[in-house]
Amino acid sequence: MWHAGGSPGHTSEPRMETETATAGRQVADVVAERIERLIMDGVLKAGQALPSERRLTEKLGASRTALREGLKLLRARGIIHTEQGKGSFVAPISQVDAGPLVHLFHSQPRTLYDLLEVRALLEGESARLAAIRGTEADFIMIRRRYQAMMDAHEQDTDIATHAHLDHAFHLAVCEASHNPVLTHTLQSLTDLMLGSVFACVNNLYHRQPHKQQIDHQHTAVFEAVTARLPDQAHQAATNHVNSVRQSLGEIEQEEQRLVRATLRLEGWA
Hints:
The protein is mainly alpha-helical. It is built from 11 helices and 2 strands, in the order αααββαααααααα. The protein has a two-stranded antiparallel sheet. Strand 1 (80-83) and strand 2 (87-90) form a beta hairpin. It is elongated and about 75 Å long.
């Protein structure tokens, strides 16, 4: 359940007076601002359908007229979009066209290592902040994501599911940082992030030593964050991503050696 005053851990603001202006502003502006705050706090997420009109008017303490005007402002700003017969949805915060970058990632495997450098920076800091700012509710979500990921490792789960569960765990840690910009930056890279996680799972999890190492690293991140040990959490998250980057590099070099040896054996070199 969400609260109009902000995310869990924030003090709720008083309900809005229905049709009065606040400090010279129109009620529609206040409605739009309150919904924007819910989005930035991660209470309403990118792609999520907005609650019903009745639910919003109750939570925001605004009339239907004010709510509709506020939603109109948000549509004009590109914060939400409406689909005929389906309702209104939260738009992606980042409007940058990632298409060329996604194509580059798939066509140039070296981009994976650049992406993993970014992941190390983002996830190291998000783990540190999560250990400092995380609430008990955040830790419950992190624990659920961690357990789901570890349970999947004990089962014969497909690679795509592994990748999504792995990503969900890291995203839960990031959300516990309570830094909306950091969280939305990570979410805006979802396609690329899932690609790097997929590469990790696809190339490392069938190798037992690497799988055990990754499991231990995830456990180290989980335990440091939930024990509120910021320095250890930062180190564990950074070490995890850098270790994956190093392991993938070693596998790539091994495969290149095999290719060269095969070409020589077949008389091509």
